[in-house]
Amino acid sequence: MYLFRNDYSFGAHPKVLEALSASNLEGNPGYGFDPHCEAAAARIKELCQAPQADVQFLIGGTSANFTAIAAFLRPWEGVFCAQTGHVNGHESGAVEATGHKLLPLEAGPDGKLTPALIEAALPAYEDIHLVKPRLVYISDATETGGVYTKAELEALSACCRAHDLLLFLDGARLGCALTSPANDLTLPDLARLTDAFYIGGTKNGALMGEALVLVNPALQGDFFRIKKQRGAVLAKGWLLGAQFEALLKDDLYFQLARHSNDMARKLQDGLKAKGYSFLFESPSNQIFPIVPDAILPELERICAFEVWGAAPEADHTVIRLVASFATEPSDVDGLLNEFPLP
Amino acid sequence: MYLFRNDYSFGAHPKVLEALSASNLEGNPGYGFDPHCEAAAARIKELCQAPQADVQFLIGGTSANFTAIAAFLRPWEGVFCAQTGHVNGHESGAVEATGHKLLPLEAGPDGKLTPALIEAALPAYEDIHLVKPRLVYISDATETGGVYTKAELEALSACCRAHDLLLFLDGARLGCALTSPANDLTLPDLARLTDAFYIGGTKNGALMGEALVLVNPALQGDFFRIKKQRGAVLAKGWLLGAQFEALLKDDLYFQLARHSNDMARKLQDGLKAKGYSFLFESPSNQIFPIVPDAILPELERICAFEVWGAAPEADHTVIRLVASFATEPSDVDGLLNEFPLP
Amino acid sequence: MYLFRNDYSFGAHPKVLEALSASNLEGNPGYGFDPHCEAAAARIKELCQAPQADVQFLIGGTSANFTAIAAFLRPWEGVFCAQTGHVNGHESGAVEATGHKLLPLEAGPDGKLTPALIEAALPAYEDIHLVKPRLVYISDATETGGVYTKAELEALSACCRAHDLLLFLDGARLGCALTSPANDLTLPDLARLTDAFYIGGTKNGALMGEALVLVNPALQGDFFRIKKQRGAVLAKGWLLGAQFEALLKDDLYFQLARHSNDMARKLQDGLKAKGYSFLFESPSNQIFPIVPDAILPELERICAFEVWGAAPEADHTVIRLVASFATEPSDVDGLLNEFPLP
Amino acid sequence: MYLFRNDYSFGAHPKVLEALSASNLEGNPGYGFDPHCEAAAARIKELCQAPQADVQFLIGGTSANFTAIAAFLRPWEGVFCAQTGHVNGHESGAVEATGHKLLPLEAGPDGKLTPALIEAALPAYEDIHLVKPRLVYISDATETGGVYTKAELEALSACCRAHDLLLFLDGARLGCALTSPANDLTLPDLARLTDAFYIGGTKNGALMGEALVLVNPALQGDFFRIKKQRGAVLAKGWLLGAQFEALLKDDLYFQLARHSNDMARKLQDGLKAKGYSFLFESPSNQIFPIVPDAILPELERICAFEVWGAAPEADHTVIRLVASFATEPSDVDGLLNEFPLP
Fold first, then answer.
1. What is the C-alpha to C-alpha distance for residues A33 and A224, in angstroms, rounded to an integer?
2. Domain final residue, candidates B251, B285, B318
3. Which of A143, A189, C288, D300 could tie C279 with a disulfide, CB 3.0–4.6 Å?
4. Residues of D in Cβ contact (< 8 Å) with A128
């Protein structure tokens, strides 16, 4: 059974586990006020060339998304996101549960938002009987593996600033985005172009944890109080700091992400060679082949995957296959070998 | 420096760490739908003699408290708690952030609620311009280390049922409660007498995690959806299951708690012998000596502790000292040795 | 200047004003616990043939919508509505501000939901990482003047019951719906087929006020507490009761609505005769002619109306014209006379 | 039966009713964007000598309180109020339903907050595991009829500014406060010393309506969107403007309030002469005599009043008697005549 269902089926990279063991009996202060969190935050600010940023560790992506959005917005403000955005389709109404309306825009199959989509939507909200759009939520990589280029993010950032919109980037898969062949963005670019973004640990070698980088000074200050209020503070907070310390040492974080991308590309190339087409040719660690419904039972016997939805072609289904830091080349070869022809 | 600040300064018991390592590369399904969570939940139901219960793992105590309360209540319903209850004084308004009013009652220094306190408060709420009390929140052990007896919990449970109030027990320190010399309650008693309670992992040998036992069938059903919505679901959910499996094997959970209590009692006895009095003679792992303000600077040099508040005596302060699974007898001896006379 | 902007530009019908004056110095109990509210509620239950219903008066439509939805749902439950539904497009995120996600469905130009729309959407929500659809919000008449037939509402009601969905009907324009030539529903039908609905006063002869009929006993009970909590209780509550007493006497409510419909139809027929087409041929008091953009400036000089949106035809706009209880036949004749040709 | 239960048992002053009738068929724009609201707002800014203020009309006191608090605060911020404050004891958890924790302080029997109360409470909230106090809610007159002096409000205002706290004044009974013999404050003082306050109409001659004066520019801007979202916007918004126009013409508002105070003082003096003592000697339109429980049944036969709570003296009860614009001297004389001796 080949496991390509997602990038959180395996625990942590061995070096991360070692770091946890090493910190186990140190006797650290609680709630993230410890030397590990301090060192990891300092390293992140250095990598981002953003000394003024505030780095906050949270336990997971959904937490990071709704806590940040609830912290940033006033009650009458809404959130532009892609129809396919994680906040809209996978978080059980978490943003709405904080009182904010999501305003989904119809992005293309790569899941990326554009200034054109935003500017087409904005005029309707001049009506003061509606919520006021105030934040643009994007993910890099997107839900469907899309990766923003520097030109795209610069255009989006300029659009947001022109319209007094905050730009918040969900980086649950940021490692895979920044190491994708399609990418020309850097961490300092993100710090320059967004108001806040996070560096995802859960899906790239950590047991859990996201490092939220609050770049915009107006968003800093009392963040800990709302992080606590929304349940995103770990009592043993150093566990998050220690994991990010390990991941950010010797480029491990990016090595793991690059590996995930490589494994996914190898699989995508192999399937293409077998004659498969794709929802969208993904440049990161998730790929979306279109398969005949007839082979689904066979596929379920040989690998773990997710059904993504019906394909435009009749009797075909889009599936998702995801590679992770733990995917071995032999897993890819094995799956390609057993994968039926379309 | 002796570390008695809290019971979450150390990571996990070695057997718990081993279990995490062992599960690291198994390739488990996400979100808690894995064999470890299944086995741990089954074991908990067995220990509670509650086959009909629904066991849900959450990442921490604050999460468990507000997610459960938000799940159980309708918008106009309020929560009786002790003035000193964790939900009232330590969670940054987390329950109110879900829309519910806390209705604090003045408990004594042991932090325990009684039917008398509840019944004295109830009549005012017949006024329909107020919220309707619908849930009683208690902790065992309490914030000040108090431990409920079976007679006390039976009386409270009967009071709740008579007044159509749900009884919810915060068990962040349940291990220490159930292994306290003052205790005569069992897990099956809790399952019989409450509507829901949780078995705390974070403060008793786990890296993180609480096992919420939904006993009342009316509170079961869709709990996962709100757990997800409130950020309390770990993507790598098996991490919680695997830790509880390890803790519940061979009575480890209770051994660790008993050890914490023993260390705290040893410290309390030693301080009493030195002439100290206490806010309240605690039967569990937290103790509250009253110390002259003059020795605080010296204390800060020799040990980590928390200031709990001003003492009734002038120029005295109540401090909190907490023992944990990682406290060694030599730590207690060392601290007692260096602790100044009152 | 002919006023067709909306059906709330004028105050109350003279008989309603008289009732308010008559009650002015009676000295009534507050908050709706007075003989007028009692009598109006009794009359509504009688008209609905629903002796078991609970009738609650609220101050306005937005209040009625979000208070009812917040009262009916658990935090993880969502609301199916038409994309064009008032809750989705005109209430500044009021439902989301209570924590609930709206799940808009693409209704046709008449704004009506169908079992097919609901049943096509339902399967996706079996995924427990999403909110659980639990309530279907419809309006009769709809935002675009559409009116449900008995067969349609019966089908919708059966669909809701089959899928454990509550059916909630926004009746801000219920008078115009029930007196439309397209209608074959009665108040007892509504009480039989929905779980809750309201009889709108604001848009049909009252200064303000909606009468919410809670038919489903499971939705009754503590409603006053949440009505108070959400600001929908008037201190001088009898003002709402007295207005509904006046409106429901001698069929006044339905006469006013029938008049509004007649005026709108007269206008629609007149414009059709002039060569205009419509977004949708409305059977109630709102009509939606499609006009060339070139005549908009001229229209703005002669009448008050609302721009509804761009028409499918290039250089054309859909406008909304609304008749009310206060519209005179001479207003319609005058407007038709001055209305430019298309 | 003498009616002294509250100051909202009667409708509107005849001049207010006339204004409503006069505006009835004018055909006004909706939602408060009409000449009446404009004129009333301009008049209020003039009376307050606050040309920069934003005046917003809301339908009632509870709405005004929770909408303003929700608009002003960030999610982790809390509200100091008197234990007896209307937001804490009479609004069914409305503020908590917006997500904010109330932090009640123990005011004296006059219900007034002081800098000392606030400054004693503040230090505990430096703990970032708690909410951050950010707003002080006071009422003038208070729930028990207390009236702030200029010196008191200046001290409170200075305290708030020193501690970065917003000062919000609930003026549901502001007319009675400002016309009390105990008062030396003016509307311009309120505009200078608070961040926002409201001028209550409901309890002083209007059918309903409160005029919220947003003095602090940082609190202005998008207020309409949240007012709409929270159900506090009347479709026929001019009804509120027209009532305030009438009340503010020829000093009517203050005449009515002065009359209410006079009637209450006459009653208080008469009861004192009969030998009664009071919870607190009220200088405004609510008085709180302490009566032997034995006379309660007799009292219930002769007048409408509210039981306020048990008196310190055994077998005695504090009751509330309230005078309003509609109270006649003969009502007071009649009640005094029939009121039993203590």
1. 11
2. B251
3. C288
4. 222, 224-225, 228
